[in-house]
Amino acid sequence: MARTFKIGIFDDEEKFISSLKRLKEQKHSVYEVFTPYPVNEVLHLLKRRTRLPTAAYFFGLFGIVATLMFLYYTSVISWPVVYGGKPFNSFPSFIVVTIVVTILTVTILSLALFSGRSKLYPGRDNTIFDGRATDDMFIIVMDTEALDEQSAEEAGEIMRTEGAIEIINKEIETVYT
Amino acid sequence: MYNRKIRGPLIEGNKTVRQITKEVVAPLETTPGMWWYIAFGISSIAAAYGVYAMYITVSRGIGTWGLNNSVAWGWDIINFIWWIGIGHAGTAFSIFLLVLRQRWRTSINRSAEAMTVLAVACAALFPLIHMGRIWLAFYIIPYPNTRGPLWVNFNSPLFWDFTAITAYLLISVSFWYLGMLPDFGTIRDKTSSKIRKAVYGFFSLGWTGSSRQWIRFESLSFVFGGLAAVLVVSVHSIVATDFAAGIVPGWHSTVFPPFFVVGAIFSGFAMVMTLMVIIRKIYRLTDYITDNHMDAIARILVFISLIMAVSYLVELFIGWYSGNEYEKYAVIHNRVAGEYAPQFWGMILCNALIPQLFWFRKFRRNWVSLLLISLVINIGMWLERYNIVVTPLSKDFLPSSWVTYKPTFIDIGVFVGTIGLFATGVLLFMRYIPMMAISELKGVVNIGNKEED
């Protein structure tokens, strides 16, 4: 079922940020914002956090352990071969492969996590709230279902007074953020 | 933090955010000039020559190359190291400057990364065709097989090399593609062509530019940055170990890994400069790739050339100081005054002496001198690899096995072919992918400008 969103469009980063600040001060729930480039202040205001680096750390641990286990299994258990009198488990010469394969493991798994969490994958529907958000406009989206009529009015007024060049209501069937 | 009085704005011409989109996307939306078709034709002919040479190599064997019993590594390995070295700069440029928060990288990183991917792909061809029986190349992949299972030699630097290059190529491609997602989204939403909308829409993977996507995007970029920085250093160290682990005089040296890494960044930065001079001249992107950008790269090059000069001196010194007659013969007599003296002195001239011109401001600010010196450095770096690979092998321990190495028409063909493939790739990149990271440029548009001060 289609949902209705109130969308404020800004052509200036500062006006957009001050509008967002006022909306947050007055406890209006902001559904999402869209910007043509990352604006750090917005990420702080909306308290956006990501645990991707933590996940990457654990992917790294997994990569190290799995690679060393694999090297041990192949070189000591499965088919031990003597290379110039070295012990089967010639650990120091395993380090290079372990580092490289660990980096590759973290890369692939982090990318998969990013793709999954951000819902970015080939063939995804490209419907977005406003196409100008990827060019030069800063967009605040408010979900009207989460606001009562008076709050929606107030939020619209705040965005207007802070310098939104356009405020529109838009019905969207499938929402991607 | 960033002082305009010292460095000037990152982007000149007081651009607006909309202007950036328009100007960076413009080359993708217009038909290229005649120069593009001519360049594409020439590079395709060169690539075709390469394909022919590779066909001869694969169908008749590597006996068609100039290799012999003593010089078992020749142009193939020289070219391999040369390309992989060039392939280092893109990531070095993007990653080191990203981690160090040098925001002037934004105008250049995309092209440098494209160069990395293409150069590493060219480099990867050489070990593959050097195997002789290329259809058995998959033997090097460690997987449970029916041959025992017989595993590969995990203690061999040659296997490390395979792992490192495969990982480097995959990570470079991932990092490059990740950076392009927001730009593909921009083109998708801006273009009026249905075909472009569909194609760039597909490759944008549904990018919206939401705060959630941006924070994950930034975070992942830094994770990749931290990882690839390690890889940049390790890949060429491993390539160096291919040599240093051998007992051939002139190769068996602990200075090789740092020497190779620095040399790789040197040649890569020189190639970045060559490309940047051409791109900014043809597409009139001087507001984005400013004189200050070129100046900064030239300063880095002159600094690295000093490290290279010291490395060459250290090599000579250790050759003498080791007291080993073979070592002394290989690095001093054979190179400095022997049969291969022209290559040695060419290397010194191109890598250690000519780049010193960058101490002078007028050479750092003139596009002709920038282009010529960057090309000279790349020739010098090729000669350096020639010195490393060929001179010790051609005259090693036994005078009875001394030979002179000469490449064949097929050796030359494979090399010319990879240059053709690289140039073709660069031309396609200019035509179909934004040459600069649009979203990153927008983020730095005001830095150093009046409003920011």
What labels would you give this structure?
heterodimer, A: about 180 residues, alpha+beta, Alpha-Beta Plaits, 2 domains, 4-stranded antiparallel β-sheet, 5 helices, about 15% strand, B: about 450 residues, mainly alpha, Formate dehydrogenase/DMSO reductase fold, globular
In short, what is this structure?
The complex is a heterodimer of chains A (177) and B (453). Chain A is of the alpha+beta class and 177 residues long.
Secondary-structure class of chain B: mainly alpha
Overall 3D form of chain A: elongated
DSSP summary, beta strand count of chain B: 0
Number of domains of chain B: 1
CATH superfamily of the largest domain in chain A: ACT domain
Q: How far do the termini of chain B sit from each other? A: 11 Å
CATH architecture tag of the largest domain in chain A = 2-Layer Sandwich
> How big a fraction of the residues of chain A is strand?
5-15%
Tally of alpha and pi helices of chain A:
5
Descriptive account of the structure:
The complex is a heterodimer of chains A (177) and B (453). Chain A contains 5 helices and 4 strands. With 177 residues, chain A is of the alpha+beta class. Chain A folds into 2 domains: 90 residues, Alpha-Beta Plaits; 66 residues, no CATH class. Chain A has a 4-stranded antiparallel β-sheet. The longest helix of chain A has 27 residues. Chain A starts with a strand and ends in a 5-residue tail after the last strand. The model of chain A has no long low-confidence stretch (mean pLDDT 87). The model of chain B has no long low-confidence stretch (mean pLDDT 88). In chain B, 49% of the residues are buried. Chain B has 453 residues and is mainly alpha-helical. The longest helix of chain B has 34 residues. Chain B has a single domain, classed as Up-down Bundle (Formate dehydrogenase/DMSO reductase fold), CATH 1.20.1630.10. Chains A and B meet through strand 2, helix 3 and helix 4 of A and helix 2, helix 6, helix 7, helix 8 and helix 16 of B.
